[in-house]
Design goal:
Number of strands: 5
Oligomer: single chain
Strand order of the largest sheet: 1-2-3
Number of domains: 3
Helix content: 55-70%
Distance between the termini: 128 Å
Number of helices: 17
Largest sheet: 3 strands, antiparallel
Strand content: 5-15%
Radius of gyration: 36 Å
Order of helices and strands: HHHHHHHHHHHHEHHHHEEHEE
Length: about 350
């Protein structure tokens, strides 16, 4: 009886063989019975090799379409992406990376210590003080109106128009829209004796950009005689730097002090007319318009209230004695003071 049952009921090995034979037929020849599309759906979902390939009387495994997609879709896309990366993204990445490395060390000191246009504006302002021209300050409400302009210029001239030019939406001239009107381009090239950048090209956008550039340069040149840092207030690079401001260990720190509400000298000393340095403390005092010039700390009459720090290291802090020496030569709003001294014969002289 057992021998009869053993012959009727197949073993596991035999069952496996039967399944193998059936699947072999199905995946190689089954399309002639179940149809090509049904065979494709069945075999394409199975993680098994079926090398009948694309023949109508058979089918193929999931690795075939996978390789086709990798070759003709993903691979070509990556190849094109590599070309894009090598030509555009990689140089841009190195530029941003090098900028960020320096920014970690300097933060907004890019603007207050390094920018050539910022330096030129300060020198022109000193020239105005030498000729005793009237000074102008922006009130808080006017400062609030000027602040969004730098973000508008960043989005429109630095980001949107160049991208649109690359996509072919706007003319080629808009590919460096901000550089076309940047007053620093004119100022620094004129310092080298090159007047070509000041020339206005006739026709099309070249004329418009040239007219705007010269007008803006004239505004900065004349405005800086009476107003401190007129272009810095609307500079898109100041807005761009603000993105990374809180990531740098270099920062401005102001401690809360009872006398601050009655003093306000730090606000008078600030060339950007940042009222927050007077009215706030902690993170609020380090405003996005701050260029880390340090004048607020220089003219603070109290010890340790305002500091410039690099991580835990204090680079400079306000001090009463420093303030006394500083105020003898210059007022907080930049007026140079006359120093009277006597020579050995008692004669007076002025410096």
């Amino acid at each position: 009886m057992r021998e009869i049952l053993s012959r009727i009921v197949p073993t596991l090995g035999r069952m496996r063989l039967l399944v193998q034979l059936f699947m072999l037929w199905l995946l190689v020849y089954g399309s002639s019975v179940v149809g090509y599309y049904a065979a494709e759906k069945i075999s394409g979902t199975l993680p098994a090799l079926s090398c009948a390939y694309d023949k109508r009387d058979g089918d193929y495994c999931v690795l075939i379409p996978t390789q086709h997609i990798l070759h003709h879709r993903i691979g070509e896309a990556i190849a094109q992406g590599q070309e894009v990366a090598l030509k555009m993204l990689l140089p841009l990445g190195f530029t941003v990376l090098s900028f960020f490395v320096f920014f970690v060390l300097l933060n907004k000191m890019f603007c207050g210590w390094i920018c050539p246009l910022g330096t030129l504006q300060e020198l022109v302002y000193r020239l105005g003080r030498l000729f005793r021209l009237d000074t102008r300050r922006l009130e808080e409400r006017h400062t609030a109106k000027a602040r969004p302009v730098k973000w508008l210029l960043l989005v429109l001239l630095v980001l949107a128009l160049p991208l649109a030019a690359g996509l072919g939406v706007t003319p080629h001239e808009t590919g460096d829209a901000f550089c076309q009107v940047c007053p620093s381009r004119l100022a620094t090239t004129l310092l080298t004796g090159d007047a070509e950048q000041a020339a206005i090209h006739t026709g099309g956008l070249g004329f418009a950009f040239g007219a705007v550039a010269n007008t803006l340069f004239g505004f900065v040149l004349v405005g800086a005689l009476a107003l401190r840092q007129p272009f810095c207030r609307i500079c898109p690079l100041l807005a761009f730097n603000a993105f990374f401001q809180r990531t740098s260990p270099m920062r401005l720190v102001k401690q809360q002090h009872d006398r601050c509400a009655k003093c306000g000298i730090c606000h008078e000393a600030c060339p950007m007319d940042i009222h927050e340095i007077w009215q706030s403390h902690g993170r609020g005092a380090f405003h996005e318009d701050c260029t880390l010039c340090g004048r607020c700390a220089e003219f603070c009459p109290d010890d340790g209230v305002i500091s410039i720090k690099l991580g835990p290291l204090t680079l400079f802090r306000s001090a009463r004695e420093y303030y006394k020496r500083r105020i003898r030569r210059e007022s907080p709003h930049g007026e140079m003071k006359t120093i009277v001294w006597h020579d050995r014969k008692g004669r007076k002289d002025h410096v």
